[in-house]
Design brief:
Structural class: alpha/beta
Shape: elongated
Strand content: 15-25%
Distance between the termini: 27 Å
CATH superfamily of the largest domain: TPP-binding domain
Length: about 250
C-alpha cells in the first residue's frame, strides 16, 4: 500500500526574507533592536494620529526598497515543493509578496498580515498600488492622501493594534487543522494569533518542524529544530519532504 503523501503547511516569518535584503524585526540585528522608535511607524494609533509618524513611515518605505526585493533560495524551495506535486499551503506573516513572485500560485499563499504591495484609504477603502504612492513620495508628497476622497493612506497590511482579517485567520486555522506536517520557517512564533497556528496543528496530530536561527516557544514540541541559515536549510528540507521522509503516520508525542 502506498504511503500517504502529506499536506504540508509552511508558516513563514521575516527570517525567510532577510536574504532578499528585507530586515527582520525581532532578531539580534532586527529593526526593533537597531531603532526601537521605528515600531510606532507600523502601529495604527500613532500612524493615524500623528502626521510626523506618517511622514517618517513613508520615507522608510521609500528607502527600504522592499518592492524591488527578489525571492531567494528559501522562497524558491517552496515553489519546488509545490511543483513536485506535494499539497502545500504557505501561511505567511510577511507582507512582501515574495512567495508569489517566486512562482507560488496566489491561491496557495495565505497572507496573515496583509500585503505591502498595495495601499488602502482608511476612509473610503479604495486600494491602489504601493508603487504609485511611493512615486508620489519621490515627487515630493510627504504624506500622500487618497486621490479618490482625500483620506489617509496606509499600507494594506495589518499594523500593530489592528486585528487580523477574520476570514484570513479562519482559512489559516483550517489549514493548520488539516495538515500532516507543519513547518515554521523564520518566525519567532511570538506574535498572536498567528503564533497559535503551530499549536493547532500539533493538537490535530501534525508533525512540527521549526527552522529558525533563534529559539522559539515551540522548540520543545517540535520533532525537528533546524538552526542553519534558511536559504540552505529549507532547500535541503524540501528535498527530504519530496523524497518521502515525512510520509505516513506522525510519530507519537506521548
Amino acid at each position: 500500500m502506498n504511503a500517504k503523501r502529506p499536506l504540508v503547511a509552511v508558516m513563514t516569518g521575516a527570517g525567510i526574507s532577510t536574504d532578499s535584503g528585507i530586515p527582520d524585526y525581532r532578531g539580534p540585528q532586527g529593526l526593533w533592536q537597531r531603532d526601537p522608535s521605528a515600531q510606532e511607524l507600523v502601529t495604527i494609533g500613532p500612524y493615524l494620529a500623528d502626521p510626523d509618524v506618517r511622514r517618517r513611515a513613508w520615507l522608510l518605505r521609500r528607502d527600504a526598497g522592499a518592492l524591488a526585493a527578489e525571492p531567494n533560495a528559501g522562497h524558491r524551495a517552496l515553489v519546488d515543493l509545490e511543483r513536485a506535486g506535494i499539497a502545500v499551503r504557505v501561511l505567511t506573516q510577511n507582507v512582501d509578496g515574495l512567495h508569489q513572485r517566486a512562482g507560488l500560485p496566489a491561491r496557495k499563499v495565505i497572507e496573515l498580515h496583509g500585503t505591502a504591495q498595495e495601499v488602502q484609504c482608511v476612509r473610503c477603502r479604495a486600494r491602489t498600488p504601493m508603487g504609485e504612492a511611493l512615486a508620489r513620495v519621490a515627487a515630493g508628497e510627504d504624506d500622500p492622501a487618497c486621490l479618490a476622497c482625500g483620506g489617509l493612506l496606509k499600507p494594506r497590511t495589518v499594523m500593530f493594534g489592528e486585528l487580523l482579517d477574520p476570514v484570513v485567520l479562519q482559512q489559516a486555522d483550517a489549514v493548520a487543522q488539516a495538515c500532516d506536517l507543519f513547518v515554521a520557517v523564520g518566525s519567532s512564533l511570538q506574535v498572536h494569533p498567528a503564533a497559535a497556528l503551530p499549536q493547532i496543528a500539533l493538537e490535530h496530530g501534525a508533525r512540527l518542524i521549526v527552522v529558525n536561527a533563534e529559539p522559539t516557544p515551540y522548540d520543545d514540541a517540535a520533532e525537528e529544530v533546524v538552526r542553519e541559515p534558511i536559504s540552505t536549510a529549507l532547500p535541503a528540507l524540501v528535498k527530504r519532504i519530496v523524497a518521502g521522509a515525512y510520509d505516513g503516520t506522525p510519530t507519537s508525542r506521548e
